[in-house]
């Protein structure tokens, strides 16, 4: 399950990076572009956290440790 979660997060993160490379976060106004980029950057960070999760991390969270 942990490996499946890591693969899913990696795929989602790669999709965000591809969208960035294709100009998906460009905008006419600098504020709009900043907001789009901040959202994508935040999402990439979260996906990276999922990619680094271990089975032990998940087990600890489930057991309230």
Report on this model:
By secondary structure, the protein is an all-alpha fold. It is built from 3 helices and no strands. Helix 1 packs antiparallel against helix 2. The radius of gyration is 15 Å and the shape is elongated. The two termini are 20 Å apart. The mean pLDDT is 92.
Secondary structure elements and pairings:
Elements: H1 2-21, H2 30-51, H3 55-62
Helix pairs in contact: 1-2
**What is the share of helical residues?**
over 70%
Q: So how many helices?
A: 3
> What would you call the quaternary organization?
single chain
Amino- and carboxy-terminal Cα gap: 20 Å
Q: In percent, how much strand structure appears in the residues? A: under 5%
The gross shape turns out to be elongated
Largest sheet: none
Order of secondary-structure elements: HHH
The radius of gyration is 15 Å
Number of strands: 0
Instruction: List low-pLDDT spans.
Output: none
Mean pLDDT: 92
What structural class results from the helix and strand content?
mainly alpha
Question: What labels would you give this structure?
Answer:
about 60 residues; mainly alpha; 3 helices
Q: What's a quick, concise take on this entry?
A:
By secondary structure, the protein is mostly helical. The two termini are 20 Å apart. It has helices at residues 2-21, 30-51, 55-62.
């Amino acid at each position: 399950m942990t490996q499946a979660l890591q693969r899913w997060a990696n795929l989602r993160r790669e999709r965000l990076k591809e969208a960035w490379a294709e100009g998906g976060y460009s905008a006419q106004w600098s504020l709009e572009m900043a907001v789009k980029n901040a959202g994508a950057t935040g999402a990439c960070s979260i996906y990276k956290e999922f990619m680094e999760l271990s089975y032990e991390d998940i087990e600890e969270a489930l057991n309230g440790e």
